[in-house]
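Human: I would love a firmer grasp of how sequence relates to backbone shape in proteins. Take your time, and here it is.
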Amino acid sequence: MGRIETVALGRTNKFIPVLSDIYDRGNISAVLRSAEGMGFGEIHLVQRGDRFRVANRVTRGADEWLDIFTWGDPSVVSSLKGRGYKVLSTGFENAMSIHDVDFGQPTAFVFGNEKEGVRPDISELCDGCVYIPMHGFSQSFNISVAAALSMFTARQKINTGDEEHLKLYRGKLLLKSLTNAEQLLGALNV
């Protein structure tokens, strides 16, 4: 119970990564692992076509501790806004530096695919655009690196959840740690 309590205390829902049409499942899996390791509780995937499969050698089980939501269309943006999130796409056009983002409000970043970035039908719904400053000749970071840098920056600027969220995360983590949690709840009529 000690480890679950420690992890629950570090969980937050004040930043949510959204991955849009990422081609490489290794990149998606790396983002999942980074998100869980930094204490974020959920991640959203926008995908056309096949259902996502994790690359177990990359996630090392991190996906088991996250709430992963999949979407087939851009409605993820309106859903997050409806929950009070400021939603920013990553890119360069009319973008602000990640260092200028106010993480006082719950925030979600939409990361686009390796080739084209964030789809226009998603970026036009976002509240703005953000970029990570670069100091070399390369024009962009790998998607998993960009997401990890963004999550690290966000994590430095936000606090963990409140008491209500602590109870929620504690309960979720306890359920996920039990191999037969659903059967146990069914037997208890919960």
Q: What stands out?
A: The chain is about 40% helix and 15% strand. The CA atoms of residues 134 and 140 lie 8 Å apart.
